[in-house]
Amino acid sequence: MTQADKMENLISIGELARLTGITTHTLRVWEKRYGTPHSQRLPSGHRRYPKEDVPRLRAIAKALEAGYRASKVVSGTLEELQGLMGLKPFIDPTSTEEAKVSSNELLVERWIKGIHGYDDDAILQGFHQQWNKVGPLSFIVDSAVPLIERVGTGWESGELTIPQEHFATECLSSFLTSKWRQLNSRKEGWTALMATLPGETHSLGLLMSAVVTSLSNAKIIYLGLNTPLEDVIATANKYNPELLCISISTGNKPLDPEDGILKIRKSLSSKTKIVSGGRGTPESLPGVLKMDNFTKFNDWLGDFENTLNVT
Predict the structure, then answer these.
(1) What tens digit of pLDDT does each residue of 229-277 get?
(2) Phi/psi zone of residue 284: left (φ > 0), alpha (ψ -120 to 50 degrees), beta?
(3) Residue 94 neighbours by CB distance under 10 Å
(4) 54 & 120 share domain
(5) From the CB of residue 207, how many other CB atoms can be counted at a distance below 10 Å?
(6) Strand 40-41 to 47-50 pairing
(7) One domain, residues 78 and 28
């Protein structure tokens, strides 16, 4: 195929929106959040999209009209979407899911090999490649979370040393920090405050939450680890965030998580929604939403942001 032929198969985002009935804003959000539709940047700096993706995007639009969530269908292939909508027989979901799990496991094991050898160049390159391939949300859910769990079991079994566990944590932390800050740059939307409670020593949960939150229109204020309770409250009262995210890992802490969260809740305006996640998060606290996985958090953020737009 010649260069001219390739150019004929690329269209602008405006043309893509016209052909699919999906707004340009939504297409941009999907590309940032899910890595699709994937654009190509021309030498002029303009972005163009493959015309061949039009039928798939039309199928996505129909699935959304039928009530499916974007997070469930945007990354689907045309064949999967047609099966979902009854246009073709279902593709066996078991074999597809097994292949995905197997691929993810192999990827994680390659990273574990890099951790054994303290090969940060290979690990970070792998992170970047996977991020670009699947998009931020899938990277978090299907790559980062399994890696964290695998490092944990490796440390518990003695396969990985404490220095290797610290090395792995630092590699992933630095990568996630750079990514959410890029996504957060020059935002002027509503405000999300990200914090932990006093004594918290694990940052990955909060960093992954920051990545997912940065896929919305929120401007993030990131307070990080071991934040004094009075500082969380003072910052929230000063900036009046629409959302406060708190990450709580397991382990002994100088402040009981339930007491800490309830004190924050009582000190803030009812207009500030509090979401807490992590294995150390208490159950059923009044005025606090417990979030147990990042896919649900992403879906919830979309619904929450819609209520902000309405009001």
Answers:
(1) 999 999 999 999 999 999 998 776 667 888 999 999 999 998 999 999 9
(2) left
(3) 8
(4) no
(5) 23
(6) antiparallel
(7) yes
Specify the pTM: 0.69
CB 275 within 8 A of CB 215: no
CB 250 within 8 Å of CB 279: yes
277, β-bridge pairs: 247, 291
Amino acid at 220: I
CB atoms under 10 Å from CB of 311, counted, come to 6
| Identity at 84, one-letter amino acid code | L
Query: Looking at residue 27, which CATH number applies to its domain?
Result: 1.10.1660.10
How far apart (Å, rounded) are the C-alpha atoms in residues 7 and 194? 43
Residues 118 and 51 both lie in one domain: no
Grade residue 23 by pLDDT with cuts at 50, 70 and 90.
Answer: confident
pLDDT digits (tens, 9 = 90+) for 1-22: 444 445 677 888 888 888 888 8
288: containing domain = 186-310
Residue 179 within any structural domain of the chain: no
Residues 72 and 101 in one domain: no
pLDDT one-digit tens code per residue, 165-209: 999 999 999 999 999 999 998 888 899 999 999 989 899 999 999
Judge if 61 and 142 occupy the same domain: no
111 half-sphere exposure, CB direction, 13 A CA radius: 30
Query: CB-based contacts of 226: which residues, under 8 Å, 6+ apart?
Result: 196, 198, 199, 200, 201
CA 216, CA 218: separation in Å to the nearest integer? 5
β-pair partners for 41: 47
The percent of residues above 70 in pLDDT, for the chain, comes to 89
Domain count, the chain: 3
Kindly tell me the burial class for residue 295, based on how many C-beta atoms sit within 10 Å of its own C-beta (0-12, 13-18, 19 or more).
middle
Q: Are residues 256 and 201 part of one domain?
A: yes
Separation CA 282–CA 111 (nearest Å): 32
CA dihedral 81, 87, 91, 93 (to 10 degrees): 60
200 and 291, same domain (yes or no): yes
- Residue 188's pLDDT is 83
